[in-house]
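Why should sequence recovery work at all? Because a backbone constrains its sequence more than one might expect. Tight turns favour small or flexible residues, buried strands favour hydrophobic ones, and helices have their own preferences. The token representation captures these environments compactly. In the example below, the structure is given first.
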């Protein structure tokens, strides 16, 4: 596993973005782990988060694209932080764009915030995590309505590796339905590999009891990719 992925896993835990315990998800599933990107609240955290996303996007898609699109609302700071990090790390200027939940009818009118998107633009979508793929259902027609746009892929921070609407993971379902790549900075398999019975800031985060709960969760909800 690349060093930046190990650091990102510890960063999620340190930032209390990735938590372990007993959680009820929006889907109604009872999960022993939970991720909330809304817990990134400081400038330092957002700067580091942007760097991790930038490295993962570089590794998976290269930098030969024009616009980084972050769906409202959590995708807005992600797209801004990551375009800044791409500029810092790689010297490449990428435009950021997000959508408004409601179109603005005055001043800077329209549904888009930030850069416009036009015919021929190559776009990477950035999100925190996707479980059902619902946000892509909303995002995809917005992007297609802007013209002849090529979507190079989707980047999320964590692949939960659980079933979406069918038997496959949400990322695999997105890939099959829309025809573009969908990747994550790390997967839960990476998290378990790095944290199981290993200290993180002096504390073992995933012990035998928690590992058994995670295994049981995947027995019930794990994706069949």
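From this structural description, the recovered sequence reads:
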């Amino acid at each position: 596993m690349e060093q930046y992925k190990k650091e990102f896993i510890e960063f999620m835990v340190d930032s209390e973005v990735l938590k372990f315990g007993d959680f009820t998800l929006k889907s109604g599933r009872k999960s022993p782990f939970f991720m909330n990107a809304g817990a990134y609240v400081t400038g330092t955290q957002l700067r580091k988060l942007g760097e991790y996303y930038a490295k993962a996007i570089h590794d998976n898609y290269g930098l030969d694209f024009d616009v980084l699109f972050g769906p409202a609302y959590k995708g807005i700071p992600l797209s801004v932080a990551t375009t800044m990090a791409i500029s810092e790390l790689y010297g490449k200027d990428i435009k950021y764009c997000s959508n408004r939940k409601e179109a603005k009818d005055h001043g800077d009118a329209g549904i888009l915030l930030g850069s416009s998107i036009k015919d021929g633009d190559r776009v990477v979508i950035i999100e925190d995590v996707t479980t059902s793929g619902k946000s892509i259902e909303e995002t995809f027609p917005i992007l297609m309505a802007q013209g002849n746009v090529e979507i190079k892929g989707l980047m999320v921070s964590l692949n939960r590796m659980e079933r979406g609407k069918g038997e496959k993971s949400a990322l695999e379902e997105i890939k099959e339905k829309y025809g573009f790549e969908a990747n994550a900075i790390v997967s839960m398999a990476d998290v378990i590999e790095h944290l199981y019975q290993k200290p993180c800031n002096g504390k073992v985060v995933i012990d035998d009891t928690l590992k058994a709960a995670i295994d049981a969760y995947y027995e019930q909800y794990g994706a069949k990719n």
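A few observations help interpret the result. The chain has a mean pLDDT of 91.
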